[in-house]
Amino acid sequence: MQLGALYVDFNSYFASVEQQEVPQLRGKPVGVLPVMAETTCCIAASYEAKKHGVKTGTQVHEARKLCPEMIFVQARPELYIRYHHKLVEIVESCTHVEKTLSIDEMVCRLTGTQQIPENAFSLAQNIKIAIRQHAGDYIRCSIGIAPNTFLAKLASNMQKPDGCVILQAHELPERLYSLPIRALNGIGARMEQRLQQFHIDSMQTLYAANRQQMRAAWGSIEGESMYEKLRGFESAEHKTARRSLGHSHVLPPELRNPVASLAVLHRLLQKACMRLRSYQLQATTIQIHVKFINRESWSKESMIAPTDDTLILTQALEQIWKAYPGNRLIPLKIGLVLGGLVEEGMRALDLFSPQLHTPQLPPKPKSSLNNALDKLNMRYGKNTVYFGGAHNAIGDAPMRIAFNHIPDLAIEDDGVGNISARNHNAGAGQQ
């Protein structure tokens, strides 16, 4: 079996971009935060910080204990997205990028003479050189090369930072025996516990299991897929329909009250609605969730007729908010999810809708209004026009980057990140 995939994983990506952009941060422990507050956590840490035990998810106060010299900066999503596109172009100049898997991961398919180990290694080194020349010395990557994407990703994690590991078919599985099964993508704490019930607690016992045992352990056909991937076969990609979309925001101290929280929710909703229409989808549920400092979380969901209309969804939001549990609670993080998504042309019409009986009627005024607002914001910049419920939070809830979602700057860049960018070197001193 020949080498088939080259996996590029950028190291400590957000923190590395900050160090590349800000020379004063180079060589120092850096933590990237969603908001500048003591009650949040690091969404990225530089390798200098990782040496002290600081990692993604470490609370700010805990990071200070582990590393008193920590420097905290506020995340700049729009900057990371622009670097992402630049890095894709750089890798593309060396070999074709088959797919971007996240903002800091991409995979290239090896063909022809690229499948010869020496040539694959040379290609990896050329990619690293091109990145240093065109992106900067502080943007480093680990590269994994293997028969398939799954094993190439595993290889990319075996030598960090700035490593390059090749896994050849004849080395499997013995070369992996020293790794814990948690090193495999898709096996987390819960899955590890489940596998232990089937007496699978190491790479040796995992490779010893046959197809039927793997299917039983996973409880689905995914077990057989894992059996294939472990042996270097490329699994077929199954595209899944988008089921939901949403936004969340960790509130800075000055917004931790019901009035400000509702304003931020309005802002999150308006951002989500614009994304919804760009995908030509409509929502059938809306859910709000709030995490409090001084009690358990609260969430509430409401079903709605399929819609992408901001006004209708705003009314649903306001109705849900009436059930908010009380003014004595201190909200820390809020979020909004539009779910049960259906394609725009696939929904059933409302029984009493005039469109059911008179299809020649022009679009509803609300639909025209939403389209007009989207066009104005796309042309003149986000927040050029918006619904008043979000007015008091228009400078809050900037764009975020989810693990498997790279925001489209043309649709989601709202300029709020530029506000935070002016203060990204400030220390996290708020409580």
Secondary structure elements and pairings:
Blueprint lengths: L4 E6 L2 H9 L8 E4 L10 E2 L1 H4 L9 H7 L4 E4 L2 H16 L4 E6 L2 E5 L7 H18 L6 E6 L2 H8 L7 E3 L22 H9 L5 H6 L2 H8 L3 H9 L13 E7 L7 H21 L2 E12 L5 E10 L2 H12 L9 E9 L2 E2 L10 H4 L7 H16 L28 H4 L3 H6 L10
Parallel strand pairs: 2-4, 7-8
Antiparallel strand pairs: 1-6, 1-7, 2-3, 5-6, 9-12, 10-11, 10-12, 10-13
Structure description:
With 431 residues, the protein is an alpha+beta fold. It folds into 3 domains: 5-10 and 81-230, Alpha-Beta Plaits (2-Layer Sandwich); 13-78, MutS, DNA mismatch repair protein, domain I (3-Layer(aba) Sandwich), CATH 3.40.1170; 244-410, DNA polymerase, Y-family, little finger domain (Dna Ligase, domain 1), CATH 3.30.1490.100. 36% of the residues lie in helices and 18% in strands. It has helices at residues 13-21, 47-50, 60-66, 77-92, 117-134, 149-156, 189-197, 203-208, 211-218, 222-230, 258-278, 310-321, 354-357, 365-380, 409-412, 416-421, and strands spanning 5-10, 30-33, 44-45, 71-74, 97-102, 105-109, 141-146, 164-166, 244-250, 281-292, 298-307, 331-339, 342-343. Strands 5-6-1-7-8 form a 5-stranded mixed beta sheet. Strands 9, 10, 11, 12 and 13 form a 5-stranded antiparallel beta sheet that branches. Helix 11 runs antiparallel to helix 12. The N and C termini lie far apart (56 Å). Residues 351-365 and 415-431 have low confidence and may be disordered.
